[in-house]
Amino acid sequence: MINYAREGKMLTHKCTKCGRLHLSTVYFCQGCGAKGFEPIVLEGRGSIATYTIITVPPAGFEGYTPYAFVVLRLDDSELRISGFMADITTPADLPVGTRAKITGFDERGIVISKDASDNSAS
Amino acid sequence: MEKVCVLGAGSTKYGNLANDSIADITTQASVAAIEDAGVDPKEVKAAYISNVFGVADKQVHIGPVLMSNLGISDRPSLSIESACGSGSVSFREAYANVAAGFYDCLVVTGVEKVTHTGTEWTTTYFAYCSDFFYEGQAGASFPGLFASMARAYLTEFDATEEDFARVAVKNHENGFLNPKAHLKKRITVDDVMHSPVIASPLKLFDCCPFSDGASSVILCSEKFAKEHGGDYVEVSGSGRGGSPAALQGREHLTTIPSTKIAADAAYKMAGITPKDVDFAEVHDCFTIAEVVDTEDLGFFRKGEGVQAVREGRTSLNSEISINPSGGLKSKGHPIGATGVGQVVEVYDQLTGRAGERTVKDAHIGLTHNFGATGASCAVHIFQGV
Q1: Is residue A12 assigned to a domain?
Q2: In chain A, what is the straight-line distance between the N-terminal and C-terminal CA atoms, in Å?
Q3: pLDDT tens digits, residue range B215-262?
Q4: How many domains does chain A have?
Q5: DSSP string of A26-41, one letter each residue
Q6: Is there a domain that residue A103 lies in?
Q7: Can you spell out the DSSP letters for B27-88?
Q8: For a tag site, which of A122, B59, B335, B342 has the least CB within 10 Å?
Q9: Residue B201 with chain A: CB contacts under 8 Å
Q10: Domain that holds residue A61
Q11: For position B215, which CATH number holds?
């Protein structure tokens, strides 16, 4: 998952029995309990489902503050993925529904950025 | 199954207890509960201890220290960690052991001591209770995770940040009447709205404090309680549930599944519905949490929790008294102690000794306590006898 995130993509697991899609950290299907999964690589694009702007950070994030912790709803799936987003200072910077994409993985976990190439409403 | 009762209860004050060690306050609360119940320590067969950050005060494995201090060092003890829900989970395990007949009398003590570590330490270490790979690692603090729920709630429903502030004002009103509360002061909606932003849209006064404190109850079989005498209340329902560990995995970002699962089980066991509950101590670590809790517990429909607060329907001695103790918000949140502290409040209410914050004519009380963003949860229902 980490290597795919570095490429801007999201590795997911599709249950070979019932078809339910999971993040790739899951070992058994929450829907039917089966263990067999087929890897599906999604484009790491979607729209912001919710977020917060953190002004009192945990250790290691002082240099980035303020920043956003975001939950991204991935296109063409029911899946959401959380991540770090830099350079967000007020709610006006990031309305819910803003288009965004995975842009990397580093000491801040999955890094998500606004998708400037995509101005479509969602 | 044996019927299970709470026979006595005690707490330290919640707040900054920097002069006492974690072992000291564990013992103080336990001794208070034992003396309140009027039992001899030799009658206490085992201890259930809930604690999360004993490492911060250089003492984990607190149980044997407590038992040694009580003069019953030969008795077993167990420490339980389930983040902020540790207290209620420990209570549940103790309940199950009495119900199963393994023990007829137990002490259940929750404790936390972290205020000496400071805000950065607590913010950092509390985030380890999240699904760290997805949340803590990406810079999510606990205020940040609940702020994400709050943002989703503001987006989905007819709610304002002032509505959340009203939860804090209400709980501070109740906590002002509680001599053991950490933040024993009245506040206004303006105070909340003008307090510093911690994680947008949550502000400082939307957040509960980091607290030190210990709470303890004596749990016993009904037979033991009747033979022993004294005031007791019956545990009539006990339920537990789970949720996807990370918010991202939840079907709705404004519902905590574990609360619904735990509550349904507890209501069913007690043979009651939410309408029968006279008062509830719910997990209001942040103002948004209380709104979501009161909906998930079935007191109000989804999206109507804020309206209920606006109309004063959750205030003391209104439609349903929510957090008469002041809740985590005002009474304080020593995370390992909180779930046990809620039972102390219910015991005090149902035995008529809650003083100025008494819920009138109360017969049925409910406690609701969860870990992290509700990844784990326990709900208990208590009836006066």
Answers
A1: yes
A2: 26
A3: 999 999 999 999 999 999 999 999 999 999 999 999 999 999 999 999
A4: 1
A5: -SS-TTT----EEEEE
A6: yes
A7: HHHHHHHHHHHT--GGG--EEEEE-S-GGGGT---HHHHHHHHTT-TTS-EEEE-BTBTHHH
A8: A122
A9: 52, 91
A10: 2-114
A11: 3.40.47.10
Residue A122 lies in a domain: no
Answer yes or no: is B156 within a domain. no
B145 and chain A: CB distance < 8 Å anywhere? yes
- Coil/strand/helix, residue B228: helix
Round to whole Å and give the CA distance between B266 and B268. 5
Looking up residue A103, the CATH number of its domain turns out to be 2.40.50.840
Q: For residue A114, give the H/E element and its range.
A: strand A109-114
> What is the SS3 assignment for B175?
helix
Residue B12, domain extent: 4-117+210-228
Shortest Cα–Cα distance, B205 to chain A (Å)? 14
Name the β-bridge partners of B212.
B15
Among B150, B198, B248, the residue with its CB nearest the CB of A55 is: B198
CB atoms within 10 A of CB A99: 19
Single-letter code of the amino acid located at B359: V
The number of domains in chain B is: 1
Question: Could you read off the pLDDT of A54-64 as tens digits, one per residue?
Answer: 999 999 999 99
Instruction: Show Cβ contacts of residue A30 under 8 Å, excluding neighbours closer than 6 positions.
Output: A20, A22
Say if B296 falls within a structural domain: no
B207: annotated active-site residue? no
ipTM of predicted complex = 0.95
Is pLDDT at A122 greater than 50 in this prediction? no
Residue B5 designated active-site: no
In a domain, B352, yes or no: no
Residue B154 pLDDT exceeds 80: yes
- Cβ neighbors of A3 (< 8 A, separation 6 or more) are none
Assigned domain for B23 exists: yes
Could you tell me which chain A residue has the CA closest to the CA of B152? A50
Tokens of B4: 């299970």
Q: Which of A81, A90, A91 sits opposite B248 (nearest CB)?
A: A81
